[in-house]
Amino acid sequence: MIYSSIDRDSKIVAGNGCRYLSVESMYGGIRQRWLIVHSDHAFEREIKTFKKNLEKALDRNAIDLKYLQNQVFACEADARIVPEKLRFVGYPEFKSQMQHL
User: Fold this and answer.
1) pTM greater than the 0.85 cutoff
2) Among 27, 1, 98, which residue's Cα sits nearest to residue 57?
3) Virtual torsion, Cα 10, 33, 5, 18, nearest 10 deg
4) What are the respective helix, strand and coil percentages of the chain, to the nearest 5?
5) CB-CB contact of 26 with 32 (8 Å)
């Protein structure tokens, strides 16, 4: 990926917490020019939204797990099906991490 190979200090400051960098690359024999823009304000807003959604997801999962603790299963196969029904909304990496437990 182009962005990961860029020195973050080489961006040009545009003011108001914004920075940009023009990058050229070749793909399929075609020269491409990319303008990478970073906004501190948009980044902080995204972090705030992510934390809020994470808290909501964790609260929902805590409720589901409490429900599971009180549930009696007829057999092991029934118990193994239930974790897939948990509500991991918005962040699929939560679900993939739970599948490894």
Assistant:
1) no
2) 98
3) 40
4) 55, 25, 25
5) yes
pLDDT band at 36 (very low <50, low <70, confident <90, very high): confident
The token pair at 37 is 């823009």
Query: How many domains does one find in the chain?
Result: 2
Q: Do 32 and 55 fall within a single domain?
A: no
Per the CB < 8 A criterion, the answer to whether 61 and 89 are in contact is no
Instruction: Judge whether residue 32 has pLDDT over 80.
Output: yes
Cα–Cα distance between 75 and 73 in angstroms, integer? 5
Domain that holds residue 59: 51-99
Q: Are residues 55 and 93 in the same domain?
A: yes
